[in-house]
Fold this sequence. Notes:
Number of helices: 5
InterPro entries: Bact_response_regulator, CheY-like_superfamily, Sig_transdc_resp-reg_receiver
Keywords: Phosphoprotein, Transcription, Transcription regulation
Pfam family, one: Response_reg
Strand order of the largest sheet: 2-1-3-4-5
Protein name: Response regulator
Amino acid sequence: MKRCLFVDDSSVIRKVAKRILNSPEMVVVEAATGAEGLDMCAYDMPDIIVVDGALEDMGTTDFIRRVRALDGRVKPQIAICLTEVDIGAIMRAKRAGAQGYLLKPFTRPQLLDRFRAFDIAA
């Protein structure tokens, strides 16, 4: 079973994602802050991480670099979640170790399509 971590300060975004993605093949866990997300990754690294492009407690690229620096057998797929296309933010996230992005608010098909792309790349 795959594990997905959704790191976003919006409880609505986290809950919508959880409703869409939770299935017998995937469990979704939530973190409201970057620090909480890092603690969860250190304890049990998820297969996929979706992180808000505007974390309140740390920079998104800092979060991604810190996840990549953690030791472990799992190297997660990481996507940033943005409210608008920001090429600079996307490129900084990719240089830090992210594989892609998605826009919010997202629809069920958009989110599922992004996750199918992760499955192919994994």
